[in-house]
Write a structure and sequence with these properties.
46% helix; globular; alpha/beta; 7-stranded parallel sheet; 255 residues; single chain
Amino acid sequence: MENKWNLNNKTALITGSTKGIGKAVAEELASLGATVYIVSRNPKDVDDQVNNLKDQGRQAFGICADVTKPEDREMMVQTVKENSGVLHILVNNVGTNIRKKVVEYTEEEYYSIFNTNMHANFMLSRMFHPLLKQAGEAAVVSVLSVAGLTHLKTGAPYGMTKAALVQLTKNLAVEWAGDHIRVNAVAPWYTQTPLVAALLEDKEYLEAVLSRTPMNRIAEPEEVASAVAFFCMPPSSYITGQTLAVDGGFTINGF
């Protein structure tokens, strides 16, 4: 029987893939046989990650780009088109947060979060649509957050953008089903990444997080990456429009 638990001969692009969850996703997809495009704003980080994967015998390309800039998004599409001609997997992973009370945000901070978390993902999905459609069978997976599903002790704009992407996932799943593009999302709870390292050093806050998490621990990036990989592979071929909480049970309790 053919083993469908692989990504052999597939091409994948992962945004924000030099650190944290994005890095783990890139490594997971590459280990399953995919050729991966590493995307980040820092050229050294991109080179290091590409070289790391190549040293493991994986296939990888690097793109230094800021997903919030229209010209960089266009460059990303052209690079994939010229090098591969097609895209089987798009992982929208880039995200940022500024933790403040609603009345404390500057307008610039507010729009910055929306541009990074929501607008960039919307535009990239739309721009890569022709290459995904051309693949014949393709998958889009967005890395969201349980902040889009329930209230957290974090910034409102962050939760708003993640909730919007839950709805975008549903809409694209319906619109693109006829193009054989499946669209899903994963919503992690706190994960051991540079983005939250300082926050989790607060022992009182960490204790509050763990007390509401049935599995009583913080996730590892590889655990989120495994869920992303599942949505990219043939075994999930009848699943679309879904958001899977990778949260150790947190959303059962909430804060």
